[in-house]
Structure formats: C-alpha cells, structure tokens
C-alpha cells in the first residue's frame, strides 16, 4: 500500500464516495463522446486504502453500472448514442474490472506483508522476552547461590581459618629453627619442612577462596566442555566442614571413565551443591551413624550423563514429590522454596531433566542428566 500517505480506511471510503459523485455528475452533463467515466479507475485505485475486498468489488460493480447509466443519459433525453460511444464504454468497464483485479492483488499482498511484519515483530519481542527471562533466571540463580553460601558462612570461615592458622604456627616454628643454626642440619630440615607446610596451607586457603569466587561470580552463562566429576570434587571440598559438622558421611561413587558434558560449570556446581545440602538437611533427624550421602555419576549410552544424590533421610511422600519442584514450595522452616525450582530451570536450560524418587529403604534420591559433549 501507499504507506507514505497513511490514509485511514474510513477516510479513504469518504474520498471514494466523494470522487464517485463528482465523476458521475461531470459525466452526466457532458456529451457521451467525452468519456469522463474512465476516471472511475482512479476511484478503484483509491479503494486500495480501504483494505476491503468487499468494498473493492462492490464499488467496481457500482462504477461499472454508472458508466452505462451515463452512456444512456449523457446526450440528454431521447438522444441515442453511437456504436463508437458504446464500445468506448464497454472498454472502460473492462478496464475498471482489470484495475480492480490489480487492486485486489495489491490488497492481498499488503495483508501478507503486514502479517509478515507482525510476525517479525512478535519474534523480535519474544526474543527480547526470552533474553530478559534468561537474565532474570541468572540473577535469581546468583541470589540463590549467595543465600546458600551465606548459610555456610560459619563453615567457610572455619575452612579458611584452618590453613591461615597453620601458616602462622609453621611460620613461628620456622623462625625458631632458623634462630638456632649452630651447625645443626636437623634444624634446617625442620625449617624446610615448616616452610613447605606454609606453602601447602597457603595454597589450601587460596583454593578455598578460588572456589568461593567461582560460586559468587556473576558472569553471563557460557556453556563449554565440563568434567562433572571435577565439579563434584570441588563441591565436596567446599562442603567438607559443613558435612563434618552435620556428621554426614560422604560416599562418592564417581565413574572414572565419565565423558565430559556441555554446560556452564558454575550453574552445574550450584545444582550439585543444592542437592547435597538438601540431602544432608533431610538426615538431621536420623541417628548420626546412619547419615550417609552417596553421590554417583554414570554415563547413559553416548548421549547423556546421570548424576545421583542419594540420602538416608526421612524420604519423600507422594504429595511432596508432586510439589517440591514448584517455586516457593518448601518443607523446611524458614526455607525460600527456590533451590529445587532454580535447579530444574538450570538443568532444563542445559537440555536435561531433574527429578526425584523415594528409595526402597530410607531416604530419597535426586537425579539429573545433561547431554554429553560431542
């Protein structure tokens, strides 16, 4: 259509009616040899602005009829018309129909273009909405990580304090051994060993801080080749003091030939950390010696990798199993009810599935699968 004019359908219909009356009036008072009805073609072109096929063909029929009405009355009452004049009017009527056919095609084409533009706009809007949703999910996942690590603050402080205390103790011992070096090679050996322990404890503290930085970082989600076994080992190291405090025995069952997966290591770490903490908390009412948490990894053919976290806690009722992955649903006092919901979103964004089942004996097993890296 003629977009530059931006004529509304209602205004276009008014123009069509006015132009038709004007052409009909002029054609009425002129001789039939002067074929003013040819300007009805302009009226039909204007009908394109109405975007109505009903108006187009209805008005085409009307102008065709008016063409012959003007022919019969243009020379005045009782005055006939020649075959040239009648032929001219028939050609005009044919031209009006052909013009209407072209306008019909232009209306259909315009509708198709408008539909395509609307679809493109909807696709662009959907992409923006998906991007906003993905950003909101990333932000929510990061908040959940920060909340989780806040709950572990005491254990983390203990984990960092141990190597730092070791550094101070070994540093003082090293100074004492170096202060008495009167030909005693044994003192030098002791000082050397103390220095090695300082380096070891410094690396240990650095590793703890490095793991914390990885958990807290807010970089955009990027999928890459990931070793799930290595991620689980890092999580277990991070949670070791908390598991000792809760008297939970960790039993890793990691597949030594596990293929790598395609995923975001930070997000997958968050899912595993949350599942391990949930399993440990589910065993709080269990006798200390029976609190066992098994973490297994297995390859499922050549397509996916399965991670299972099995506890010996109170188990899961069928009613809870249906609701536990819903946002804000929680069975823990003071819980946010977001951990499992966020975990499922993360796993599904990786093309996998997160689920749970009750064990034949005590406790429950949470499991998720993600595609292998190819």
**Classification by helices and strands:** alpha+beta
What is the string of helix and strand elements?
HHHHHHEHEEHEEHHEE
Tell me, rounded to a whole number, the average pLDDT.
77
CATH-derived architecture of the largest domain:
2-Layer Sandwich
The biggest beta sheet, please?
Answer: 5 strands, mixed
Strand segment count: 7
The top level CATH class name of the largest domain: Alpha Beta
Helix content: 55-70%
Uncertain spans: 75-79
CATH superfamily of the largest domain, called what? Histidine kinase-like ATPase, C-terminal domain
Shape: elongated
Q: From the alpha carbons, calculate the radius of gyration and give it in angstroms.
A: 41 Å
**N/C terminus separation:** 50 Å
Q: In DSSP terms, counting alpha (H) and pi (I) runs of 4 or more, how many helices?
A: 10
**CATH topology assignment of the largest domain:** Heat Shock Protein 90
Beta-strand fraction estimate: 5-15%
Order of strands, widest sheet: 2-4-5-7-6
Summed up, the domain count is 3
């Amino acid at each position: 259509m003629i977009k530059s004019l931006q004529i509304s359908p209602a205004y276009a219909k008014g123009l069509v009616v006015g132009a038709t009356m004007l052409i009909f009036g002029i054609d009425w008072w002129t001789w039939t040899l002067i074929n003013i009805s040819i300007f009805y073609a302009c009226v039909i072109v204007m009908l394109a602005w109405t975007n109505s096929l009903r108006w187009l063909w209805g008005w085409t029929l009307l102008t065709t009829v008016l063409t012959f009405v003007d022919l019969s009355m243009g020379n005045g009452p009782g005055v006939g018309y020649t075959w040239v004049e009648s032929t001219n009017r028939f050609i005009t009527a044919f031209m009006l129909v052909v013009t209407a056919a072209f306008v019909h095609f232009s209306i259909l084409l315009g509708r198709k273009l408008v539909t395509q533009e609307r679809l493109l706009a909807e696709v662009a809007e959907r992409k923006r909405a998906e991007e906003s949703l993905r950003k909101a999910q990333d932000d929510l996942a990061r908040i959940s990580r920060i909340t989780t690590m806040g709950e572990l603050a005491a254990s983390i402080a203990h984990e960092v304090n141990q190597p730092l205390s070791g550094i101070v103790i070994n540093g003082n011992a090293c100074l004492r051994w170096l202060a008495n070096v009167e030909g005693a090679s044994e003192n030098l050996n002791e000082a050397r060993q103390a220095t090695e322990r300082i380096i070891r404890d410094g690396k240990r503290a650095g590793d703890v801080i490095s793991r914390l930085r990885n958990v807290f970082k807010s970089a955009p989600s990027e999928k890459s080749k990931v070793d799930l076994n290595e991620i689980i080992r890092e999580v277990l190291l991070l949670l070791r003091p908390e598991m000792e405090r809760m008297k939970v025995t960790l039993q890793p069952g990691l597949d030594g030939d596990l293929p790598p997966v395609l995923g975001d290591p930070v997000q997958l770490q968050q899912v595993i950390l949350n599942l391990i903490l949930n399993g440990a908390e589910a065993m709080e009412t269990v006798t200390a010696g029976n609190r066992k948490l098994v973490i297994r990894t297995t390859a499922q053919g050549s397509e996916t990798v399965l991670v299972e976290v099995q506890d010996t806690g109170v188990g899961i009722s069928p009613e809870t199993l249906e609701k536990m992955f819903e946002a804000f649903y929680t069975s823990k006092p003071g819980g946010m009810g977001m951990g499992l919901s966020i975990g499922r979103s993360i796993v599904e964004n990786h093309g996998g599935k997160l689920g749970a089942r009750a064990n034949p004996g005590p406790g429950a097993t949470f499991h998720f699968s993600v595609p292998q890296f190819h």
